[in-house]
TrEMBL record, chains A, B:
Entry EC no(s): 5.1.99.1
Keyword Metal-binding: yes
Keywords, ordered alphabetically: Isomerase, Metal-binding
Protein name: Methylmalonyl-CoA epimerase
Gene behind this protein: mce
Record Pfam families: Glyoxalase_4
GO molecular function annotations of the record: methylmalonyl-CoA epimerase activity
Family matches, as PROSITE patterns: VOC
Spans through the membrane: none
Organism: Mesorhizobium humile
Domain VOC: 4-134
Gene3D superfamilies, sorted: 2,3-Dihydroxybiphenyl 1,2-Dioxygenase, domain 1
InterPro entries reported in the protein's UniProt record: Glyas_Bleomycin-R_OHBP_Dase, MeMalonyl-CoA_epimerase, MMCE/EMCE_epimerase, VOC_core
Length: 134, 134
């Protein structure tokens, strides 16, 4: 079921400063910042060739990463996203296995325009797992 | 400078339970556990095709992930590892840029038998960054 790693999401309190660190200090290739108001973040993609690193800064009042940054004011590793071929089949298998799907259990359209689900971090040893239909 | 994502390391308090969750619940392909006493961990590799997820359980008295698991008893995302072509050139560039290299600043031989460095998470917005010479 579990396919390739689509991205690793890193929450940062200051996207401009994080862009400078990744571009100038680490020598990484970055996208321009993209505001995604419907997802409550501004994102910069770091292209590392085999996958993407996403630098996320909160956007708007109800950002899904605001609580994380309150607990981790410097920022930190927020979630990993794996690809699956069939998100409804994946969801059904996960629920049968006892894993908790966040929200109402139905896929939402994620930041890449594809259906996504998030799984409860307590079921995966403290790691927030996103699944995206490839 | 920054090359491909070599792995994402997830610290877990109970490797057998984590293996069951990744294999049975997420349907992932796992390696057998490998004890690496000189690195203070037992590791299981999760093959996701384009990169690796490493599940790390502490091994021995002075495990480098023990303090993390004291702060995060359920486990969590521990570090990301990027490949570089020349780790000494990378180290010199990082130091010139003001980034802090952990330890004495010299590469050590990492868990894959290659030279590695760790960078201070405060310089990268709460994310512990490992660099490995490819």
């Amino acid at each position: 079921m579990l396919g390739r790693l689509n991205h690793v999401a890193l929450a940062v309190p200051d996207l401009a400063a994080a862009m400078a660190a990744y571009r100038d200090t680490l020598g990484a290739r970055l996208s321009a910042p993209q505001a995604l108001p419907e997802h409550g973040v501004t994102v910069v993609f770091v292209d590392v060739g085999n996958t993407k690193i996403e630098l996320l800064e909160p956007l708007g009042e109800a950002s899904p990463i605001a609580a994380f940054l309150e607990k981790n004011p410097s920022g930190g590793m927020h979630h990993v996203c794996y690809e699956v071929d069939d998100i409804l089949a994946a969801r059904d298998h996960l629920k049968q296995s006892g894993a908790r799907v966040l929200g109402d259990g139905n896929p939402k359209i994620g930041a890449h325009g594809k259906p996504v689900l998030f799984l409860h971090p307590k079921d995966f040893f403290g790691t927030l797992v996103e699944l995206e239909q490839a």
